[in-house]
Amino acid sequence: MEPSIKTETLDIEGMTCASCASFVEKSLSRTPGVQRAIVNYATEKATIDYLPTEASPATLKQTVLQAGYGVAERTPDTTAADRSAELDQQKAEAYYKLKQRFWVAAGLTVIIMPLSMLMLWPALMQRVSMPLVNYLLLLLTLPVLLYSGREFYRSAWNGLRHGTANMDTLITVGTGAAFLYSVAATVAPSFFSRQGLQPEVYYDTTATIIALILLGKVLELRAKTQTSAAIRALMSLQAKTARIVRSNGQEVDVPIEQVQIGDVVAVRPGEKVATDGTVIEGQSALDEAMLTGESLPVEKHPGDVVFGATLNKTGAFRFRVTKVGADTMLAQIVKLVEDAQGSRAPIQRLADKVSAVFVPTVVGIALLTLVLWLALAPAGVRLPLALVNFVAVLIIACPCALGLATPTAIMVGTGKGAEHGVLVRNAEALEKAYQVTTVLLDKTGTITRGEPSVTEIVAAPNHDAGALLALAAAVERHSEHPLAQAVVRHNETSEEQIPATNFSAIAGHGATATVNGQEVAIGNRRLLAKVGATLPEELNAQADRLVAQAQTVLYVAVDGQVWGLIGVADTVRDTSAAAIRQLRSLGIEVVMMTGDNPQTAAAVAQQVGITRYFAEVLPQEKANKVKELQAEGRTVAMVGDGINDAPALAQADIGLAMGAGTDVAMEAAGITLVRSDLRGVVTAIELSRQTMRVIKQNLFFAFLYNTLGIPVAAGLLYPFFGILLSPMLAAGAMALSSVSVLTNSLRLRGFSPRKA
Predict the structure, then answer these.
(1) Are 200 and 386 in contact (CB under 8 A)?
(2) d(CA 530, CA 473)
């Protein structure tokens, strides 16, 4: 028996670029017992699948520490909400400190820049001592390096000790080279003069680069915080207290952490439901938009399920707690969103491969630039030009935009999905939904409501439909058959509730009972023969009509006389036809699959506008139907809700489980629709398409930026146009690239499902 695989999530500290994430991921992947490791730079999380017999959370943390990075401690038994609040607090503190470092660098740079430009005015240079100005610039630049830029140098040194390089390595080498060159020109100007060189200083370059990079970091951190707004919004929905009903009837407010399974909780109008449970007393309408995205309130009666964080609109009610803490619907949604945001889409693989070798490659290009300029530039300006271009290449080549291109869009996209009742299991599922060409719908519980209901009552001449229903319900109240329960539910609002005695169920036929001294039989046509009742010709025609409409006919006989018919069917959901039209408008073929007979399948298909369907499909054959469609070259999305749908959901390119379905179906699906509404399929596919469009835009921009930026920084345009890229402009461009990618991803926050 193979050992079970466990999953551990670590909050990584100290990552400054995609190269850092790549190095941590490689380190974890090489750890004995680790089956898979994914490190997400945007979320700063590592998700590790490992064998507990060979590895442990402690060894995983130690691996990260040995790689030169930190791991944020998680308090045992901390709830997802508390953990998120702790991380938000840590990020807020980091943001504040980062802004402090930026403002110090910016303030000093404002002074350093004009002092550095004195050499542009010969008249001023005659009145001041340039050596003295250079020493003053040195003193002003030191705080920028030692305070504002210290984290860059610390990170680079830490990486060097562990044999790796990252973005901070590029910044350190670039600004360090400019600063050391300037110090040499300040302390020993005569050395440069003897070589025929002007002892120029680049303190302004050093300070400005650090200030601009810090500005980019500030904007980046702010934007990254916005990408995780969906989780914070979900966390904020949780109720803080619950009104527990004690055994003596007294109501007491207690912290939500003290609520236990089995407690009875009272909810008044305008209050949030504390946790998940089942209504036992009272009724009300609840706003469940935070779970489903549906704005209309949902009526709740005794026996109905309520979910924590939903809002009670009208009446008062009491419910018995069935789930608390991490088992509640809200906690499961938050966990699913967190997992999805920490996962990796297949489209990210190319960017990851590039990021893994990017920094060493850039250092090589920068050194080659330095050598070529030293060899080919005019003698008088050889060293300064070589230095400037060397620094420009190092600064502009940050791979942050590549590292942020995919995960930031995934974070926003999965968050928006959760807002609208579409829960994406991982980034791969979101990407797969974008490629779907065919949607295969299971009929029962997906297109239809999944439970039979009375659709029509046909009374024989001289008989009343209401009386007919009351007699039938009196009998069926003693039966547990789904068709019987449909009759009972249809009669619940009637004031006439008649008792029945001598109930007898007849297998394969129906049931009989004595009601008000009359012998009442309800069942199929075979039951009529058994009780000696004859079906009138006019009712026979009506029965044929109901059968043609894919309805099941229940015949009601009283004392051997047929009083009428009751049509029962699994009715189509109100929104199914509109959702199918929307899918077809997206260029997607819709196919239906059902175990029902061809006649019933045809009737339902015609009702919702489906032209292709599979009928009489056995549960074990459903996965084969998916394979048939895939063999035709189609990318198939399977939508289902039952245990027998699980194999087909797993076989499909992407499985979508209806939220009212079974846990097994949801486990097999890549996307779960909280609402049992096919419009969620449309939302999932449209969200996937928009997210992938943004990802491709981000990757294109990031690759284009580095492809064009590095050659320009190396001086490729100088021989033709005399253009050189200032290291300060390179720093600004680098910061802008990351912020642009993040800003583009944040456009997804404006996504909203299309209207029917």
Answers:
(1) no
(2) 20
Residue 285: closest CA among 312, 325, 316, 246: 312
Packing angle of the helix pair 482-490, 465-476 (nearest 10 deg):
130
Cα-to-chain-centroid distance, residue 164: 32
For residue 613, give every residue at least 6 positions away whose Cβ sits within 8 Å of its Cβ, in sequence order, or none: 591, 592, 593, 594, 601, 602, 605
Name the 3-class secondary structure at 653: coil
The band of 1, judged by pLDDT with boundaries at 50, 70 and 90, is: very low
From the candidates 263, 442, 570, 645, which is the catalytic residue?
442
What span, in angstroms and rounded, lies between the C-alpha atoms of 579 and 610?
Answer: 11
**Prediction pTM value:** 0.72
Decide if pLDDT at 138 tops 80: yes
Nearest by Cα to 311 from 328, 336, 291: 291
β-strand partners of 572: 448
Task: Compute the C-alpha angle 206/208/214, nearest 5°.
Answer: 105
Cβ proximity of 117 and 205 under 8 Å? no
pLDDT at position 196 is 61
Nearest to 604 by CA among 629, 636, 631, 580: 580
Q: So what's the pLDDT on residue 342?
A: 66
Report the alpha-carbon distance of residue 525 to residue 519 in Å, rounded.
17
- The SS3 call for residue 311 is strand
pLDDT for res 443: 86
Mean residue pLDDT across the chain: 83
What 8-state DSSP symbol labels residue 145?
A: I
The DSSP symbol for 750 reads G
Counted residue by residue, the chain has a size of 756
Considering only CA atoms, which of 601, 706, 733 is closest in space to residue 365?
Answer: 706
Phi and psi at 296, nearest 5°, equal -75, 135
* pLDDT of 739 over the 90 cut: no
The helix-helix angle for 130-143 and 80-116 (nearest 10°) equals: 180
Crossing angle of helices 167-187/203-227, nearest 10°?
A: 160
Q: What's the average model confidence in pLDDT over 351-373?
A: 82
User: Rounded CA gap, 207 and 201, in Å?
Assistant: 12
Contact 429, 673 (CB under 8 A): no
Residue 603 φ/ψ region, left for φ over 0, alpha for ψ in the -120 to 50 degree band, beta for the rest: alpha
Dist. CA 406–CA 18, nearest whole Å: 11
Pull the structure tokens for residue 144: 């920028």
DSSP-based three-state secondary structure for 655: strand
Burial class, 39, CB count within 10 angstroms (exposed 0-12 / middle 13-18 / buried 19+): buried
Check pLDDT > 50 for residue 498.
yes
Q: How far apart are CA 555 and CA 532, in angstroms?
A: 13
- Do 656 and 669 form a contact (C-beta atoms < 8 A)? yes
Amino acid identity, position 31? T
Rounded-to-integer distance, Cα 332 and Cα 329, Å: 5
Three-class secondary structure of residue 511 per DSSP: strand
* pLDDT (tens digit per residue) in 600-614: 788 889 989 999 999
**Please, what sign has the CA dihedral across residues 564, 569, 572, 573?**
positive
Other Cβ atoms less than 10 A from the Cβ of 420: the count is 22
Report helix angle 329-342 to 427-434, nearest 10. 80
Sign, CA dihedral 585-586-588-593, equals negative
Tokens representing residue 693 in the block: 């469009």
Paired tokens of 631? 């063999």
Where do we find the tokens 């400037």? 388
CA distance 442 to 573: 13
Question: Mind spelling out the 3-state secondary structure of 421-463?
Answer: CEEECCHHHHHHHHCCCEEEEEHHHHHECCCCEEEEEEECCCC
Is 442 catalytic? The answer is yes
Specify the pLDDT at position 662. 47
For the residues 43-71, what does the mean pLDDT come to?
A: 89
